[in-house]
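Consider the following input, taken from an annotated entry for altered xyloglucan 9 (Hibiscus trionum).
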Amino acid sequence: MLMMLGAVQLGVAAACVVVLVPMGMAGWHLSRNKMLFFSGALFISLAICVHLIPYFPSIPDFVTSVSSVVVFEPRTSCINLVNDISWKVNPQNASSRLHNNATHDLDLYDKRWGWSDSHKLKACDFQKLSRPDASDLLNGSWVIVAGDSQARLFALSLLTLVLGSDSQRMDSVRADLFKRHSDYSIFVDEIGMKMDFVWAPYVVNLTNLTTEYKTQNSCPDVMVMGAGLWDMLHFNNASHYELALRMLKTKVVSLLPLSTELAMNEPVVGSSSHLFWLGMPVLINGMLNTEEKRDKMSDAMWHAYDRALGDSKLLRQTGGPLLLLDSQSLTWNCGPHCTSDGMHYDGAIYEAAVQIMLNTLLIESHQRL
Ligand SMILES: *[C@@H]1O[C@H](CO)[C@@H](O)[C@H](O)[C@H]1NC(C)=O
Ligand SMILES: *[C@@H]1O[C@H](CO)[C@@H](O)[C@H](O)[C@H]1NC(C)=O
Ligand SMILES: *[C@@H]1O[C@H](CO)[C@@H](O)[C@H](O)[C@H]1NC(C)=O
Ligand SMILES: *[C@@H]1O[C@H](CO)[C@@H](O)[C@H](O)[C@H]1NC(C)=O
Ligand SMILES: *[C@@H]1O[C@H](CO)[C@@H](O)[C@H](O)[C@H]1NC(C)=O
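Applying the prediction step yields:
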């Protein structure tokens, strides 16, 4: 018992150091701007939660949890958990159906989502950012969303959050954004945010784009990329896809300002761009709308493409530069009631992906304190 108390005291002391040092650092820089304040505040509450939680498990776990206090790294752990979202998809009741004037099968279901309820996730304190919070976070930044129709839907979701209830403005955004196969650019002057959507259906287009930014020496604050479905339909060759992804990875690593300091298997620390990969959604083969799609975009091919992504080492989990926005798990968990064509999903999916990105930005930005 004495030994155990000793261990506990040691743990408490360690926890204090781990909590107070970043807290002090955060306090020192708070005035820099609102974004840092916001992320600092979140980080402090996060750090406190994370470090207090180990003190409540059962006694036999005590010693191991005390030692884990010292090695636990909230930033990495929470980034690994941020895609862990669960869904409640229920038929709408008759009155809300009438109220919403449902014109589409998709609208017949209520889709609610939230971060899963586990112990570990609670410590990360993920939250759905409101419009003002998102505006604070993105104030003054340049955001690029590049890719196929999935990326376009993501861009729409991000703008819906930032522009809020101004439905007239959203209608005009939607009309411009959905001009077939075209780029789109908007400056949201209230918060000085610039967002570009770049139509880039193939990975080689993304690589090309990265090269362009590199030659212009311009570096976006946030960049979200994603492509794969066109490759699957038109090349139908997972090795082709993997090769393209590897080339993209090489280009992206060379775009990063601190790329020379980047060891191959370490996370990208201190880069000034936040880079995301919007994964491929689950394809529901029977719902795809052409014979060619049903034939080529089979489950087996989907899995081969998913493996190609892993093997390309593009993602942070495999030592690469991009953080995954896990469309696969979002769409899988939401299920067939969340899509009308087995490929493009309900707005709720992309809304969740946007919130995953924003929460990751919150966690990431504290590292710049
Ligand atoms: C539902 O919407 C359609 C067009 O979007 C409109 O013509 C119709 O009157 C609406 N019905 C109700 C009950 O609001
Ligand atoms: C954005 O930042 C500027 C200065 O950094 C500030 O004046 C402005 O109020 C901010 N806007 C929002 C919506 O936070
Ligand atoms: C690469 O970018 C250039 C300049 O925008 C464009 O002309 C060219 O078609 C692009 N090529 C590919 C493969 O995307
Ligand atoms: C994307 O790449 C394809 C294949 O190289 C090319 O044909 C197409 O023009 C490119 N599209 C854009 C928008 O750059
Ligand atoms: C698939 O792509 C790879 C790499 O581009 C190529 O070497 C191979 O021949 C392709 N396979 C088929 C069946 O086209």
